[in-house]
Write a structure and sequence with these properties.
Blueprint: E1 18-21, E2 27-30, E3 37-40, E4 43-46, E5 54-58, E6 71-72
Antiparallel strand pairs: 1-2, 1-6, 2-5, 3-4
Length: about 80
Amino acid sequence: MKKLTQEVFKNATPDVKSACVCKDGFGELWSVPAKNLHPSGGEFLSSGAPITYSYPLGHGFDATDWQNSAIDREVTA
């Protein structure tokens, strides 16, 4: 199983702010911070932004604690 780490942001566009893993081990990148992502019915939904979108990372991520999997992209100078 793959772990959700900062590595998932390596080739992401600058608009990507967070990532998470759904109940089935499917990973996603999001255009909102992790604080705007909320687990619901096995996946994450976003709130607090008028336009929100996600990009698929694919299957195979560790979903052991999927409800708490959302992470923010670390900004490095």
